[in-house]
Amino acid sequence: MSGNPSVTTPGIYDQHLDKNPANYVPLSPTSYVERTAEVFGDLPAVIHGQRRYTWAQTRERSARLAAALKALGVGRGTTVSVMLPNTPEMVEAHYGVPATGAVLNTLNTRLDAPLLAWQMNHCETQVLITDTEFGPLMYEALRRLREDHGRNPIVIDVADSEYTGRAERVGTHEYEALLAAHAPVDRLDGPADEWDAIAVSYTSGTTGDPKGVVTHHRGAYLNAVCNAATWTMPHFPVYLWTLPMFHCNGWCFPWTIAMLAGTHVCLRKVDAKSILEAMREHKADHYCAAPIVHNLLISADPSLRDGITQRVRGMVAGAAPPAAMIEGMAKMGFDITHVYGLTEVYGPAAVAAKRTSWASESLSEQTRLNGRQGVRHTMEEGMTVMDPETMTEVPADGATMGEIMFRGNVAMKGYLKNPSATDKAFAGGWFHTGDLAVLEPDRYVKIKDRSKDIIISGGENISSIEVEDALYRHPAVAAAAVVAKPDPKWGETPVAFVELALGAQVTAEELIAHCKSLLAGYKVPREIRFEPIPKTSTGKIQKFMLREKAKSTAAFD
């Protein structure tokens, strides 16, 4: 036996026990599609308006897409960008593109032409699949891509049967014709190496150029399982696509639903009426959304919920949910699970895991418990709150602030073409989120703020989230965002941007008085501004724009 425990000496279990095709297959979520088509091929896979596809049909369409892409020269390491809403073609892209070895790049449908061109150039897009709704926008983005960057990708147009607006083709291929022209590949195979990239997704780029987050087949496979375990999802769920699939690959739910032989109910556009009608008509029982979408449901006409008799389970993430939102959904009878994560960890990576004892608590205490970011997912190897300078865990006292960090298999490969940012993100062997939080005595994590969103007033730290929670507790408030405003005496003071609920009225003085009843004096906003709050397509409030409006010093960090 070696005297050095770090040196591994071959033993009896290392002899004649090698990996082989019978006992080792690289992990890839494409295998979920193959298995479900084989076992449950007759069951419904996709519902979209008048269109219906079984799992056998969805598998075949995805396999035809893979064959068509291969014929166009797509292979390992090729980037296929897609500009698609939540349609069957977007589902098929998540199954067909990875089966070619290519990397899927889902474009945010709300970006402008210059940023779309920048992203497609950065990830070296070779094929673009785009919905004809976005024809004019993509025409301009492609023009810029050619003229500014010298790239001219192959373009495939999707003419969705459910789109009735102005349609404009910009490509040389049409999606359905392309599928019809190619026999399906024999199998939707994964890669030879599960570490191969499966997708590149871009961060919002609020401070400089966006970063391309590269994820791998292994992580996508594992996080698809995490989704089901976290939510205790049964087989055959009916999943409603309120979350854009372009956002972190739909938090890996395209692959989770394949694994569970569920049904994708697609929505091109998201509003309260469409969501509740789909829940009623198709018996949808699971959905994911940012807090703003849940608030839409809370404020919708209660009669729209008539006929929804099934148990509906919602997952909320994308921003820290206000306590009033969690409480409002509970009063509606919807079962809400709060998760937390980032693009760099494939979407959700932590959950406010519910304990049975919580059910006996008051509604307000349940709201507090469920409002925390919680504990790591089953397949995350580590999540804690650390001092980023010393890389030591903060005390579990609910007061000492540090930075949330993750480690494990469900973490990105790194940032595309950005080694310095990758090294910084992984410093000390952990992924640094940039979110400031405390570790509570039960080891559940509670976010206090993004590091750049903390307001320092007279030397005291103010959590913008805490102030926003107070504002949301006023029935007239539909949306709220709090940022720092420079102050000659205090350095910074909180300023609140507020959107009112439909038909509601309230004065700034009344809101300030409301906040005073819930917060310490120094935390109360000194100013209330009633105006539209800028948001991303996934419902995240764009605070960097508000900081600029407030002329916050943080806007110039």
Automatic annotation (TrEMBL):
It comes from Ideonella dechloratans. Residues 466-540 form the AMP-binding enzyme C-terminal domain. This is Acyl-CoA synthetase. Residues 34-416 form the AMP-dependent synthetase/ligase domain. InterPro entries: AMP-bd_C, AMP-bd_C_sf, AMP-binding_CS, AMP-dep_synth/lig_dom, ANL_N_sf. One of its GO terms (molecular function) is ligase activity. Keywords: Fatty acid metabolism, Ligase, Lipid metabolism. It holds the Pfam family AMP-binding. It comes from the Bacteria. Belongs to the ATP-dependent AMP-binding enzyme family. GO terms for biological process: fatty acid metabolic process.
